[in-house]
């Protein structure tokens, strides 16, 4: 069974601090997606990484896919209260017929205090 | 463009009753997915439609769950008869036909079975 271990589960920091969220697995994924979810809403896609070693930047957010495509990280620089939310990683399975089947981590609940 | 719409947003039913959840994907999106989050657990895949055909239904828990997508447009997910462990948030997502780049999720239906 493929699993995505996401850490930390909870993170409470002050505005202006940096943070990193990790997503690890023993399995190889065809792609790795990061979502952000607000209460009462569905996950909203932030980024998709598909190549081992790939790094993508979205303003103050930096996403990295591990060389072996088994792990990923999300780094936020100078966090702001507006970054507060639940961050989810999701791995896309390789192989025909199962590409729509995402494996989700349990999420990291981030709270950024002013 | 309109996003993925799910109805109802909340449903409270008694054990043994039937509930039907509806999802309207983004117009033109051939891929439609159902996911579920049970309290305390990660979001888990249920099934994947490509147009009106079931591409992957490996995540369906048991035969009390029936999903349909007549005409390749909206989809319904029926639970009959509902059990207590079916409680959770049911998400629908859609993507264009060739997309491995991430999905657009609806806001979910929170189902409570009492």
According to DSSP, the number of beta strands of chain A is 11
Secondary-structure element pattern of chain B, one letter each: EEEEEEEEEEE
Count of β-strands of chain B: 11
Structural class of chain A, by secondary structure, is: mainly beta
Radius of gyration of chain B: 13 Å
What is the mean predicted local confidence, pLDDT of chain B? Answer: 93
Quaternary organization: heterodimer
Q: What is the rounded distance between the termini of chain B?
A: 37 Å
Give unreliable regions of chain B as ranges: none
Beta content of chain B: over 45%
Give your account of this protein's structure.
The complex is a heterodimer of chains A (114) and B (114). Chain A is an all-beta fold. Helices cover 0% and strands 52% of the residues of chain A. Chain A contains no helices and 11 strands. In chain A, the strands form 2 sheets. In chain A, strands 2, 4, 5, 9, 10 and 11 form a 6-stranded mixed beta sheet that branches. In chain A, strands 1-3-8-7-6 form a 5-stranded antiparallel beta sheet, with no helix packed on it. In chain A, strand 6 and strand 7 form a beta hairpin. Chain A is globular. Chain B is mainly β and 114 residues long. Chain B is 0% helix and 49% strand. The radius of gyration of chain B is 13 Å and the shape is globular. Chain B starts with a strand and ends with a strand. Classes of the chains: A mainly beta (114), B mainly beta (114). Chains A and B meet through strand 4, strand 5, strand 9 and strand 10 of A and strand 4, strand 5, strand 9 and strand 10 of B.
């Amino acid at each position: 069974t493929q699993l995505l271990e996401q850490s930390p589960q909870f993170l409470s920091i002050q505005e202006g601090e940096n943070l990193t969220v990790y997503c690890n697995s023993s399995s190889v994924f065809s792609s790795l997606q990061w979502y952000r979810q607000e209460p009462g809403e569905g996950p909203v896609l932030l980024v998709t990484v598909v190549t081992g070693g790939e790094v993508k930047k979205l303003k103050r957010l930096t996403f990295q896919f591990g060389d072996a495509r088994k792990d990923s990280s999300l780094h936020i620089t100078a966090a702001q209260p507006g970054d507060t939310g639940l961050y989810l990683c999701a791995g896309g399975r390789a192989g025909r017929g199962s590409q729509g089947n995402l494996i989700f981590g349990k999420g990291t609940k981030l709270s950024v205090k002013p | 463009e309109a996003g993925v719409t799910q109805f109802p947003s909340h449903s409270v039913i008694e054990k043994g009753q039937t509930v039907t959840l509806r999802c309207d994907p983004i117009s033109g999106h051939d891929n439609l997915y159902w996911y579920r989050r049970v309290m305390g657990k990660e979001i888990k895949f249920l099934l994947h439609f490509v147009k009106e055909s079931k591409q992957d239904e490996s995540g369906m828990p048991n035969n009390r769950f029936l999903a349909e997508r007549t005409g390749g447009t909206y989809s319904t997910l029926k639970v009959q008869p509902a059990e207590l462990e079916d409680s959770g948030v049911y998400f629908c997502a859609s993507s264009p036909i060739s997309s491995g780049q991430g999905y657009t999720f609806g806001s979910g239906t929170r189902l409570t079975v009492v």
